[in-house]
Structures are given as structure tokens and as C-alpha cells.
Amino acid sequence: MYLAALALVAVVLAWPVPRWLPAVHRLRKVPGSALLFWQAVSLAAVIAGLALAPLAILATVRRGHAVPSPADNLGMLALGLAISAVLAGRLLVQGHLIGTSLRRARREHRELVDLLARATPDRGTGGGGVVRVLAHPTPTAYCVPGASHRVVLSDSTIDALSADELRAVLAHEWAHLTLRHDLVLEFFTVLHTAVPGWVRSARGLVEVRLLIELLADRAAVRSVGQVPVARALVALAEGDHPDAALGYEGRTALIRLEILRDTGRHRALVLVAAIGSLVVLALPMVLGALVIFAG
């Protein structure tokens, strides 16, 4: 019974939940807590999936409630661990491939930016870095994460924005870099691509990207206020950025403007998301322990 419940948890967390959760728009009001819940769901699905094969082998070879000796069942034990190792290996391979691809793309784009852009100090946001300014007719802003990061603006962005709006944009980009949102997105991308295509939910990855942008918007609001951030969103609504970068996205501007108008603290929602994260993460571990010790 407990093994069937663990299998159900693995399937539900990997398949329907990532498709259903983006429809819970209320979570966007607490993007940090929402991302925590998303991470708990993803980790719980991985834990359940990795534990399933060894525990199924255990249930097959045991007689009664006693835990059988591993020495008496080496072949079956090796089979269960091998299945889990294949799943873990796929995650590790995808992590390596995606990480390598992103680092290469970011390195190449940094080299291009350094070649084409002019560097100017960022004196307005406390980011303490240098901003690269590209000649481009479309207002756009983004950052290239990594150990040698870059914040990039088009010259039309500088022309289109007031001083406060420009500070809002820069605060948004520095928040991405300081909080290492690229690592959060990379984590979800690895999990997304590691599962079979028929299981994947593109909506889930899109929602995670939106939550990351909302977190950066919150940081910008704390730095310069709500109005400059909203105006900057409108001004950069047609902007875009390279796939390996993070920054203002016009495709989500209307949603982000709607969230900006909500100034509530939503403590109850934060509490529910935190408790939900703990429960979801604990569930596969509790079920696994019950399979082992309760039979």
C-alpha cells in the first residue's frame, strides 16, 4: 500500500502538478514562496522516483515485516540500485549538458558585448558594477549571469527612460545577478529536460521564469518605488534578450503590471506555501520509511 502511494506521489508530482500549478495565479503574489513550493515539488518528485525501484525490490524479496539481509539478495539489490542510478545519471548528464551549453553561450555573448558595447559605470543603483550600452533601436535591458557577469542596455533604453525608471531597470538586473536567479532557472531546466517529453510541462518552466522576473521586480520596487518600475515595464514592453540571459520581457509585462498593483503582504499565503513545501518534501521520505519499516 505504501509503495503504491509512493509511486502515485512520484507520478502526480512529475506530471499533473506542473501542469496544474501555473493556473494557481494567486501564488504570483508571493513569488519567493511560490518558487520555494515549486522547488519542493520538483525535489519530492526526484526523491520519490529515485527511491521507487530499490523499495519495490525490497517489497518483492521480503517475507513478512522484517527487513531482509542485503547479503542474501545482492542481485535484486543491485538491480534496484542500478535503475535508480540510471535515473540519477540522466539528471547528472542533463545538468552537465545544460550547464556547459549555458556557460558557452554566455561566454560568447559576453565577448560579443565587450566588442560592440561601450562601458559606463552604474552610479545610480548601488550595484557597484559597470553597464554595457549597445547601439540598438529597440529599448531593451538584460543581464548575462556568471562569474564574469554583464548588465546590458540599449542606447534607446537610456533615451526612453527617466532617471528613476533607468534606476528601476538597473536594480532589476542587479537583483537577478545578486540573487543568482540563473541557478534557480538552471535547476528547473535540468529537471524539465531530464524527464521524458510526454511528461514535460512547458507551462511549468514558463511560470518559473515569470516568478523569477516578479522577484526582480520586487527588488526594484524596494530600491526606487512602484511607479518607476511600472513605467519602465511599459517602456520596455517590446524588448527581448538572448536565451542565455535574464532581463525585462515584454511578453509578461501585463501580468507583472497587475502584480505590481498588489501591495499586500499576504502573510497567510506565505504561510500556506511554506507549510505546503514542507509537507510535499516530507511526503516521499515518510512513505519510503513506511515501506521499509512497516512493510
TrEMBL record:
Membrane-crossing residue ranges in chain numbering: 38-61, 73-93, 268-294
Cofactor: Zn(2+)
Every Peptidase M48 domain range: 130-187
Cofactor descriptive note: Binds 1 zinc ion per subunit.
InterPro entries in alphabetical order: Beta-lactam_resp_regulator (IPR052173), Peptidase_M48 (IPR001915)
GO molecular function: metal ion binding; metalloendopeptidase activity
Record's keyword terms, sorted: Hydrolase, Membrane, Metal-binding, Metalloprotease, Protease, Transmembrane, Transmembrane helix, Zinc
Gene Ontology biological process terms from the UniProt entry: proteolysis
Sequence similarity: Belongs to the peptidase M48 family.
Protein name as catalogued: M56 family metallopeptidase
